[in-house]
Amino acid sequence: MVVLAVCAVVFLAGLFRGESAMLMFLTAVSLAVAAIPEALPAVETLGSVTYICSDKTGTLTLNSMWVEQAEVARLRTASVPPAGEMGEAGRLFGLAIALNNDAVRQNDDCVFGDPTEVALYLAARDAGYKKEDAMRSMPRLAEPPFDSNRKCMTTVHRDQEGFVAFTKGAPEQILL
Asked: Domain of 160?
């Protein structure tokens, strides 16, 4: 309270001396920040900021993401190819995005999970790959734990011919 009173006195004294109101306001605020630096930490931080970057993937505005494009067997499509199209590569891609995620359907309209995983779940479902059906025919047997060095999620499933592993993650890790 004492510091604020001193700042008000300095502001008013400056005005009586004929200084501009803006200059005296800035002087009073500077004095307050100097006297009580912990009261306005953002002022110091913002004063040293050069760039402000934000992630604009849709999660900030709608809290949702969606698949806009897929590439299967070097063919780019507007979305996930429907079940039955693009042969074995298309089938495996559809199964991969259906099975290699932890999104959970609560009812017909609500899917919960990480926005990326929900987007993959919905894209697979819309293409005809229902996760619940795929999990019955290809149950998940293992999932190595995610870590920041691997930057990937891998799930291992049993199918009629043996085992299959699906991996998704950072492109620089997948393309190694």
From this structure: 70-174
For 142-176, what is each residue's pLDDT tens digit?
998 777 788 889 999 999 889 999 999 888 888 87
Tell me if 159 sits within 8 A of 141, measured CB to CB: no
CA pair distance 73, 39, nearest whole angstrom: 58
Q: Which domain CATH number covers 132? A: 3.40.1110.10
pLDDT digits (tens, 9 = 90+) for 26-63: 988 888 877 765 645 566 666 677 766 665 555 556 66
Give the residue numbers annotated as catalytic, written as ranges: 55
Residue 98 inside a domain? The answer is yes
Structure token digits, residue 41:
């930490």
The answer as to whether 65 is a domain residue is: no
pTM: 0.63
Rounded to 5°, the CA angle 5-11-17 comes to: 135
